[in-house]
Specification:
The chain has helices at residues 14-27, 39-49, 65-75, 91-98, 111-122, 130-136, 146-156, 159-169, 174-181, 185-199, 204-213; strands at residues 5-10, 30-36, 53-57, 80-85, 103-106. It is an alpha/beta fold. It has a five-stranded parallel β-sheet, with helices on both faces. Helix 2 (39-49) packs parallel to helix 3, helix 8 (159-169) packs across helix 11 and helix 9 crosses helix 10. It is globular. The relative contact order is 0.11.
């Protein structure tokens, strides 16, 4: 039996946060190792506890969820952030993805949907809708057309890195990419880091957006 996913919940509404903790605990497969009522507390818990996933409310007073997400992904790079939002049309969703969140889930989602989102993000997958991806497509070279961007990517990345990028843009996690390309997860992790460095982007989502814009995925 696999170990439960270790999760930290960050939301300024006590009733919602406590309710979600109870529901996830009852569902099983998740161990809520900590919860926080604001972004600063959430950052501290992420650093101290090193959970698999931080479920981060985007709309909080004092420090926004976007700012807190940036701090978590910068200071605890092994921790994934799942943004929690009332509406997928909220501009802060895109800001959170650019800050390093691996995806988002709606507050009105069922506990099963939230659990699956946590599970996917913990496995290294990207949970980004086509609408959000389109909004991120201008991250690299807004003035460049698709053929120019595709040419740039092909000349910048090795063939193996392009293969990894295509699969990354399809939402595959490192373990899935490793199985498909017959590589070790550690090798895939190194390829992803090199892709980010070469493209001058901060996270997997921005790299994936570039691949989609260039029609490589």
């Amino acid at each position: 039996m696999s170990d439960p996913m270790r999760v930290v919940l960050v939301d300024d509404h006590d009733f919602f946060r406590n309710g979600l903790r109870e529901l996830l605990t009852e569902h099983g497969g998740v161990q809520v190792v900590g919860d926080a009522a604001d972004g600063e507390q959430g950052i501290a818990l992420a650093r101290e506890l090193g959970p698999d996933v931080v479920v981060m409310d985007l709309n909080m007073p004092r420090m926004s969820g976007v700012e807190a997400t940036k701090h978590v992904t910068d200071s605890a790079p092994g921790v994934r952030v799942l943004a929690l939002t009332i509406s997928a049309d909220d501009r802060t969703v895109i800001d959170a993805i650019r800050a390093g969140a691996s995806g988002y889930v709606l507050k009105g989602a069922s506990v099963e949907e939230i659990y699956r989102a946590i599970e996917a993000v913990a496995a290294g997958q990207l949970l980004v809708s086509p609408r959000v991806t389109r909004a991120l497509q201008g991250v690299i070279g807004d003035s460049a057309d698709r053929s120019e961007l595709a040419s740039t990517l092909r000349s910048t990345l090795s063939e193996r890195e392009l293969e990894v990028l295509r699969l990354l843009a399809m939402g595959r996690g490192n373990v899935e990419i490793a199985k498909e390309l017959f590589l070790s997860p550690a090798t895939v992790k190194n390829h992803v880091a090199e892709i980010l460095r070469k493209l001058g982007v901060e996270n997997r989502v921005e790299a994936a957006a570039a691949a989609v814009r260039a029609q490589l995925a």
